[in-house]
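User: Structure with fe (iii) ion, tokens only please.
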Amino acid sequence: MTIQSMNELFLHGLQDIYYAENQITKVLQEMMSQRIDTALFDNLEHHLEETQEQIKRLEQIFRALGQTPQGVTCQAILGLIEEGQELVREIEDENVRDAAMLASAQAIERYEITRYGTLVAWADEIGRSGVVDQQQLGSLEIVDLLQLSLDEEKNQDARLTALAESRINRHAAA
Ligand code: FE
Ligand code: FE
Ligand code: FE
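Assistant:
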């Protein structure tokens, strides 16, 4: 694929995060299938639901742009997932494993924050130049939908920090 304009770069970014979000639904379910802390389980379950909504949001955006929803391989998310899974497999102690898993989940959130942050900025800029700004989705514009997902990722990042500090890290260190 050659990218020749800011619009195409933006589309590529959407495809990258679309691929990543689909991988994330799998890894969240994989984490939840293990024996993990109940509060961590509840957190991941809640974010799995948010992730499924984020995927639908991206599909709405693709359609508003006249594009078929499709992903492009995101090496970064594959690497983050693989690294986390390898580490978790090496840990026998359940509490220590929870701490490692939480940290891995949080690294994924940080990746999403950087990508959605960029996409919000690009959508805002493209909208200014009139290319995307007619694209209304109900009462929301593309930039607003991306901002909703960005806010969810930031909230999840903060919830993981709180959970780590209040509970998971303490149990792991005990
Ligand atoms: Fe997400
Ligand atoms: Fe990527
Ligand atoms: Fe997320």
